[in-house]
Specification:
Elements lengths: L4 E4 L6 E5 L10 H5 L5 E5 L15 H15 L4 E6 L1 H12 L4 E7 L9 H11 L6 H10 L6 H10 L4 H11 L6 H4 L5 E6 L4 H13 L3 E6 L12 H12 L9 E2 L16
Parallel strand pairs: 2-3, 2-4, 4-5, 5-6, 6-7
Antiparallel strand pairs: 1-3, 7-8
Helix pairs in contact: 2-3, 3-7, 5-6
């Protein structure tokens, strides 16, 4: 079965593939896609999510292979990729396995070094996943993932209640099992690693480490925001960042160089969404 895809913009334009977080679906990128009319935008619903709910999440590698086929079949074999959290973990898999398909890449909110507390987080997600369809539970998960109150949280609740609970559980675990490999650090693509300043320290440390090891990568920080900031807290800034990065232009003032000190909430608990 093929993944459902939300599409906007002329097919003759350069393509961007947007990859959503766990519990979300491609509709989370509607505003970003509308704000980039000069691009051909593709936002698939990943396995187990949205209109792809019937396709069970198998693995990060399986999902990356599906996205690679979309790039080959719908984007002329070459695309920019913007990934958030779970989607960022798939972007990292593509960087390692299929870099020739990629142009510029943005990796937001995903660690490749792990957290000592991720085990308890997986247990918690496994316990709560059977109740995803209950909106009060969905709101609790949204707040735990850093989604602030308002329209952003309402959209998250609508999306996560449509996700397959088993796939949600598997995808969450998978997104937290990314690790640095020789193939990943050899990827030549222009790659931006970005995180909110309120993200956890281990994630920000991963961004800096990957930016140091990869030949064409940079690490940046967005002050005053946390996980998923681009889709909820500062969509305007996220849009400006995407447009600038893909055009090799200076990044907007609100996206600053990552310092050598950890300003986040330490090296402990936290997880991609």
């Amino acid at each position: 079965m093929a993944l459902a895809i939300h599409e906007a913009g002329p097919s003759s334009a350069p393509s961007i593939v947007f990859l959503h977080g766990v519990g979300n679906n491609g509709t989370m990128w509607r505003a970003a896609m509308a704000g980039l009319p000069e691009y051909h935008c593709l936002a698939p619903d990943l396995p187990g999510h949205g209109e792809s709910r019937a396709i069970r999440w198998q693995s990060r590698q399986d999902t990356a292979a599906r996205i690679a086929r979309i790039i080959e079949q719908r984007a002329g074999g070459h695309a920019h990729v913007v990934g958030l959290s779970l989607g960022a973990s798939v972007a990292l898999e593509l960087l390692a396995a299929r870099p020739a398909l990629l142009d510029h890449v943005i990796v937001d909110g995903c660690s490749a070094i792990g957290s000592p507390m991720i085990g308890p987080m997986k247990i918690g997600v496994a316990a709560i996943s059977p109740f995803l369809r209950f909106k009060p539970v969905a709101r609790i998960i949204g707040r735990a993932f850093g989604v602030g109150p308002g329209p952003g949280l309402d959209a998250f609740v609508e999306q996560i209640t449509a996700a397959d609970p088993r796939s949600f559980r598997r995808a969450f675990a998978d997104a937290n099992e990314v690790r640095i490999t020789p193939a990943l650090v050899a990827a030549p693509c222009r790659t931006l690693f970005v995180a909110g300043a309120n993200e956890l320290g281990y994630l920000r440390a991963s961004n800096r480490l990957l930016a140091e090891r990869m030949p064409n990568a940079e690490s940046r920080l967005v002050p005053g925001v946390g996980h998923g900031w681009g889709a909820s807290t500062r969509p305007d800034l996220h849009l400006a960042m995407v447009r600038a990065w893909l055009a090799d232009a200076p990044l907007p003032d609100g996206v600053v160089p990552e310092s050598t000190s950890l300003e986040g909430r330490g090296m402990g608990l936290g997880a991609p969404s």
